[in-house]
Amino acid sequence: MSEEIVLEVKGLRVRYGDFEAVKGVDFTLEKGGILGIVGESGSGKSTVARTLIGLQRKSSGDVHVNAKSMQMIFQDAVGSLNPRMTVRQTLGEVLKVKGIADATPESLLELVGLSTAVLDQYPRELSGGQCQRVSIARALACRPEVLIADEPVSALDVSVQARILNLIRELRSKLNLSILLIAHDLAVVKNVCDRICVMEKGVFVDSGTALDVFTNPKSDYTKRLISAVPDVDRALDERSGSLALKRSY
Ligand SMILES: Nc1ncnc2c1ncn2[C@@H]1O[C@H](COP(=O)(O)OP(=O)(O)OP(=O)(O)O)[C@@H](O)[C@H]1O
Ligand SMILES: [Mg+2]
Asked: Which residues are close to ligand 2, an ion, with C-beta < 5 A?
């Protein structure tokens, strides 16, 4: 496995009893790269993510990890935080178990653009975007080399989505992270990811650079996902007072 590759997956299959949720997928994540996995609900994206970090057993295939630490941000940011713990306690706990020497709750909050004013607040006192930032901060406590973000923005308003995606991009450069970004629509990944894999019913039906996938989609499924993207752009334009129909790929 090349030094430049942090994650290599070959022929990965995962079953839940008789049901095969992942039917043989292959991909590589390059050092410092952002790879997007996109697909509709139930296509198997979270199953792939959970298998990579060992929460789910694979039924066959190979997963090679060339990194000291890999962390995951879970799909439901609010639900993944303990409601009875303040931000300080949540970050303090993970720092005690696997934190690096010079990290503190304050330094983690600074990394994710949150004020220390939230340290003594509980998840229910925070907005969805703030909860997502806390869960990113928690994942960064052990300075992972690979970050898996499972639908980090799907529960957030469009304007908050953009800010969290920018944060993820900034963290990639600042911390030299390699990132696997999972989403259910192409609009989320198109400006963030270097490469994109499109997943349908347990298999990848398209993959390549973001430009390849947008300009030369191989499957009808990808074409359908692409045709949904201008609607998102139009919604954004309508919000900003412009009715221009923009196809921005
Ligand atoms: N623990 C489980 N036991 C049985 N079936 C499961 C389990 N977890 C997921 N599945 C099934 O496996 C398939 C893939 O689920 P998965 O959660 O990986 O999809 P997903 O692409 O992440 O969807 P979403 O966009 O809704 O998060 C679905 O049909 C789901 O019902
Ligand atoms: Mg999922």
From this structure: 46
